Amino acid sequence: SNTFSSGVVGSDTGPRTNLKLIILDEADQMTNAAQNSLRRIMEIYSSNVRFCLICNFMNRIIPPIQSRCTGFRFPPLKAEVVKRRTAEIAKMEGLRVSDCALDTLAEVGQGDMRRVLNCLQVTAMSLGPSPDFMIDREIVLTTAGLPKPSEISDLLQRLMQEPFKACVDWVVMMHQAQGYSVEDLVAALYRAVLRIDWPNVVIVQLMIRLADIEQRLSAGASSYIQIASLVSAFTEARFEIERLKFDLHFK
Q1: Domain named Replication factor C C-terminal: which ranges (predicted)?
Q2: What is the reported pTM?
């Protein structure tokens, strides 16, 4: 970067200029040491270089760099926009995609069109040259390595009915044998719980526990310890539901 910044830009057909533009994608993945080195380069070559830093999480960019930049925040794309554009691209590529698959792709992408198209491309490649084959929800989930709704429904039922040790063994099996990440299981259970008509106090407590588990997983905590924590969260929710039913019975 230092060598590139100090050079002169020009072409055979246009005027020569000292002004350069450096674009760094995924800048939030840089270490603090690398960002401090970048900050120094930005200071030295501020007269002839403009830096464009693209990141997913601005809080991972060190404050000295943030203070030297103007921030532009781009919110995630709405699901309807993602589905409409995905359908257009699928049609141009000669792919048959069901409405349920479009919904699933939008859910997988979380507003990130690049992630959606990458998933669609991998799914299409896994099917091979099959123009008459319909891409459905199950195929998208399998390709993305995400648990299916039926599996999450079964898991939720087990968590609310079976003993603690049996539930831990089942989640470990899903993690090891089926290859589902604990983060994806937590996210899927979060969405499933929001659709259930449980008492608010139970849902609030469960959301707090799920958020803590997700935070610990992102920090590098042991997956197996967090699996036990996940099961314990639903065990507590089960006890709380039973207690509330008992209290209501005597009111």
Answers
A1: 147-233
A2: 0.68
